[in-house]
Amino acid sequence: MGQLEQGSKKRTRRANLEKVLLGTLVAAGGIGVALLAPNVLQLLKHVDPDWIYKRDPRQRLREVAHRLKKKGLAEFRTEGGKKRLRLTARGESVMSSIWSENFQLKKPRRWDGKWRLVIFDIPEKRRGVRDRIRTLVARLGFLRLQDSVWVYPYDCEELVTLLKTDLKIGRAVLYVIADAIEFDKPLRQHFGLPLE
């Protein structure tokens, strides 16, 4: 499971923790709030540290990179005095299978109710890369929302990270998890999801 996916699940838990915290603070009354709050925050820090400490996006990227490294799909190389993430031979083999016509994303049994958006802004001078990405996401079943905004209902963070590493496009492609999209009935119908 990717870092953004884990973060999304944590935010759901966090909303529940926030309700508990607010209820506790209200029950404690005005005077008790100042005394109780540090203890509650310490407790929550151990339950869910991200509730208190904001995630640094660079840290999240490092975690994804280290996860790919641990799986043997990528490695860090020093190029021009800078450390860069590059695919290993195994990672290149995985990407080769992803680019092949037979590759399909695995779908879980149940949808978790979240949408995955892949957004890319690749300059005209790299049009070939942009066309390759567009062709791949369309073939894998993503649905185009706007020019360079594609939607998919299941976790595909690792695929997107491998794609970014393979094509060396970094921030030109963003992976977003959304809890809701306006007027999503046609999207649900397209992907065969419950209409609620």
Low-confidence stretches: 15-55
For the largest sheet, list the strands in their spatial order: 4-5-3-6
Query: Which percent band covers the strand fraction?
Result: 15-25%
Continuous helix count: 6
| C-alpha end-to-end distance | 26 Å
Provide the domain count.
2
- State the major sheet: 4 strands, antiparallel
> What share of the residues lie within helices?
40-55%
Secondary-structure-derived class: alpha+beta
Principal-axes geometry comes out as: globular
- Averaging pLDDT over every residue, what do you get? 76
Order of helices and strands: HHEEHEHEEHEH
How many beta-strand segments?
Answer: 6
Calculate Rg over CA atoms: 20 Å
What does this structure look like?
The protein has 196 residues and is α+β, with helices and mostly antiparallel strands. The chain folds into 2 domains: 3-51, no CATH class; 57-191, no CATH class. Helix content is 52%, strand content 16%. The protein has helices spanning 3-47, 57-70, 89-99, 127-139, 157-167, 185-191; strands at residues 74-79, 82-87, 115-120, 143-146, 149-152, 173-178. It has a 4-stranded antiparallel sheet, with helices on both faces. A hairpin with a 2-residue loop joins strand 4 and strand 5 (149-152). Helix 3 (89-99) packs across helix 5. The chain starts with a helix and ends in a 5-residue tail after the last helix.
Please outline the helices and strands.
Layout: H1 3-47, H2 57-70, E1 74-79, E2 82-87, H3 89-99, E3 115-120, H4 127-139, E4 143-146, E5 149-152, H5 157-167, E6 173-178, H6 185-191
Antiparallel strand pairs: 1-2, 3-5, 3-6, 4-5
Helix pairs in contact: 3-5
